[in-house]
């Protein structure tokens, strides 16, 4: 006889009209509505995640079926693969990261005997599918790290959790050996490196390094533009465009093999883009960057900025703080961190001053910065005697909150802003001029676009945004550059801005030549006035008053 689980037998009535909405809204529209509910009522997020967990757990025993199919044109992924991957991603997203590991292991096991023809084009068909799974594993492992966070830093894996991690790692190593024996590029190189690092398997890490031919020294041929602009952090010159690696946190921004990523890293560095921004929660960004930099013949030419982000409650002690920096150095394959940017979620917990003081004492941190601190807390940090050199905040034509109070604090204390969101997820670009509103859940949309479309709607509306793009187009034609160049230049022309962080989809898309056109010119008075005419029609003051100062949207 079936046993009914002992849980609260409680439900509420959903009226017929509401049920009609759910049953008839197109899938993309329903997703947009759900996202709108979560952004306007954040308290609902926990309920949404919990109900997702219940659904996935109830349907966990459904078979995956065949994931790959041999055809006359080679091996391809099946519709079952797509369904399995959607399930994996939902499982990771709702916090059931350890439950996702057996599903990922199954995909790896079924991939072990699938090698692509030597003449296959990069990332075509099967390769693209497997590279996306590599990204999924990386995202799952990032979720594991989040689950291990505790008041005293990070707890150890429980026995069952460690068994799941080891089983996945074993499958990855076995799959890797088969692919390398077949003289094919292993599709799960990124995730294998990350899990080896997480499990502290020194022997496996060394084996991976030894077998990886791409570890041979890369010599970068410099092709730096004569118009390259720099700014100074104490005794260090840095480019005014950083390359942001947040896209490595999820395959939602596109996928590529590690070798393709390395190739593009080298291209960026050769063109003078030698500074990279990452974080402890950006997937395998630290690991990939560390591997790449260590393979260079001149690793000191490349600057790595990462973050220590405290999103949950911790008890600040010297041991907790030092352990995090040890982890940053280990993942980045470095003895010290060039720039450590500190984010603290809960201002009511004033331990952030103590944490920063301890970070300042750590000799492995070359420079100390902040991330998403508002003006008042930035001033408080300065008054406490902590020597911070940067603050990373959102700053763009759409979100100009740093102009209100942050800029004055930075100018007074010679602190430079590193700005993200400057191109609004790619919306501040020629391709969006004259275009209708985006399909936020279309095949080409990204999490960044969903985020910044909401920001555009808060700032004004799509029609006003199109008017802004038209003005920027006129200016870009005048200076023979792109709309994106003008948008970046507008931010760079503020004296308290050190650098704009431009997202880099390594191995997926490449914009080095266009990005170089941001350098070597300035907006004149007429340009500034025409932009200001549009900005005066926006809700920029209301954004500051209603959203709060820099970083408030995260709190």
From TrEMBL:
Q: Name one Pfam family in it.
A: Aldo_ket_red
On whether Oxidoreductase is a keyword of this UniProt record, the answer is: yes
Domain named NADP-dependent oxidoreductase is located at 241-535
Q: Which UniProt keywords apply?
A: Oxidoreductase
An MF annotation (GO) of this entry: oxidoreductase activity
The protein's superkingdom reads Eukaryota
What is the protein name stated in its UniProt record? NADP-dependent oxidoreductase domain-containing protein
């Amino acid at each position: 006889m079936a046993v009914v689980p002992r849980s609260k037998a409680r439900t509420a009535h959903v009226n017929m009209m509401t049920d009609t909405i759910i049953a008839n809204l197109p899938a993309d529209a329903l997703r947009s509505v759900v996202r709108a509910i979560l952004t306007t009522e954040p308290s609902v997020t926990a309920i949404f995640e919990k109900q997702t967990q219940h659904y996935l757990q109830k349907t966990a025993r459904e078979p995956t079926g065949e994931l790959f199919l041999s055809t006359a044109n080679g091996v391809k992924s099946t519709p079952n693969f797509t369904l399995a991957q959607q399930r994996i991603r939902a499982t990771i997203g709702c916090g059931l990261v350890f439950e996702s590991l057996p599903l990922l292991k199954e995909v790896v096991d079924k991939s072990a005997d699938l090698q692509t023809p030597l003449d296959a084009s990069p990332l075509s068909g099967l390769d693209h599918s497997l590279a996306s799974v590599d990204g999924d594993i990386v995202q799952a492992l990032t979720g594991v790290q989040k689950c291990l966070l505790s008041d005293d830093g990070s707890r150890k894996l429980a026995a069952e959790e460690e068994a799941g991690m080891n089983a996945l790692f074993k499958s990855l190593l076995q799959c890797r050996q088969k692919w390398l024996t077949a003289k094919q590029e292993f599709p799960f190189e990124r995730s294998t490196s990350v899990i080896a690092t997480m499990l502290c398997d020194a022997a496996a890490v060394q084996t991976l390094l030894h077998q990886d031919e791409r570890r041979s020294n890369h010599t970068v041929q410099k092709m730096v533009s004569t118009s390259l602009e720099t700014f100074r952090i104490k005794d260090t010159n840095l480019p005014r465009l950083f390359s942001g690696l947040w896209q490595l946190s999820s395959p939602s921004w596109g996928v590529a093999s590690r070798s393709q990523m390395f190739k593009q890293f080298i291209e960026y560095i050769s063109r003078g883009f030698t500074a990279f921004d990452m974080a402890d929660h950006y997937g395998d960004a630290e690991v990939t960057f560390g591997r790449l930099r260590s393979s260079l013949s001149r690793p000191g030419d490349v600057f790595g900025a990462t973050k220590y982000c405290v999103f949950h409650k911790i008890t600040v002690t010297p041991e907790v703080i030092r352990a995090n920096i040890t982890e940053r150095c280990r993942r980045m394959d470095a003895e010290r961190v060039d720039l450590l940017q500190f984010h603290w979620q809960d201002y009511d917990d004033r331990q952030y001053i103590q944490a920063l003081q301890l970070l300042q004492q750590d000799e492995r941190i070359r420079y100390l910065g902040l991330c998403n601190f508002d003006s008042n807390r930035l001033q408080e940090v300065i008054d406490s005697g902590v020597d911070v050199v940067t603050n990373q905040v959102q700053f763009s034509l759409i979100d100009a909150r740093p102009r209100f109070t942050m800029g004055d604090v930075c100018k007074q204390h010679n602190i430079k802003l590193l700005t993200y969101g400057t191109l609004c997820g790619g919306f501040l670009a020629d391709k969006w001029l004259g275009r209708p509103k985006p399909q936020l859940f279309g095949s080409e949309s990204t999490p960044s676009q969903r985020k910044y479309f909401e920001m555009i709607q808060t700032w004004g509306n799509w029609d006003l945004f199109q008017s802004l793009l038209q003005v920027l187009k006129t200016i870009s034609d005048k200076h023979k550059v792109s709309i994106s160049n003008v948008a970046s230049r507008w931010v760079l022309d503020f004296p308290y801005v050190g650098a704009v962080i431009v997202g880099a989809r390594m191995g997926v898309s490449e914009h080095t030549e266009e990005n170089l056109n941001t350098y070597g010119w300035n907006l004149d008075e007429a340009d500034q006035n025409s932009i200001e005419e549009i900005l005066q029609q926006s809700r920029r003051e209301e954004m500051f008053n209603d959203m709060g100062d820099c970083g408030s949207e995260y709190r």
